[in-house]
Protein 1
Amino acid sequence: IESHKRTFVKTISWRLTGSTATFLIAFLLIGNITIAGTIGIVQLVTNTILYYVHERLWNNIHWGRK
């Protein structure tokens, strides 16, 4: 079982990667840095919370562990 701190650090690391990709895709499609930034920030906050909760729930499931 991993600690809350480890889950949090993994969450931040993954979200920075994903949010950078989202921002770049939005900017390339829309061409507006403000709108792309807004999309990136909304996605960052929403997916950070969802990922953390997902990881903590799966941490309580023993299926597939040895």
Protein 2
Amino acid sequence: MQSIHIELPDTLAAELDALVQAGWFRSKNELICLALVEFARHHRVALAEQFQQEDIAWALRQKEAIQE
């Protein structure tokens, strides 16, 4: 497992502390790891969709060029 160091704005750090203190997470580390996993999962799908749309657009342009 890798370790990274991040700096957070005080207001965001306070929000994370509040979530931990409320019992939603065991630690800020757990909260941040989960947030990063969800961010990656969400954007991986969006990026895959973007690539698929670009591939379809390219194929349609190729088809039009051949038909001309």
Protein 3
Amino acid sequence: MALIRDIARVCKSKNAGPFELTIDVVFEDDETFRRVKESGVLCPALFARLYNVNPDHVLFTPYDAARA
């Protein structure tokens, strides 16, 4: 299993307000982006579990044009 740090070109987080966090994961090429996206491993349920929040509070937005 690959680690995100080994396959993502960029993986960063930043505060988006007092109760919000933005996480950007950008991939170098279309093939890697497609494989990760189709795997479903990055999903609201994962981030909800990692940050101990309700999945309904996770907004997950893949952005194909940026491979993010």
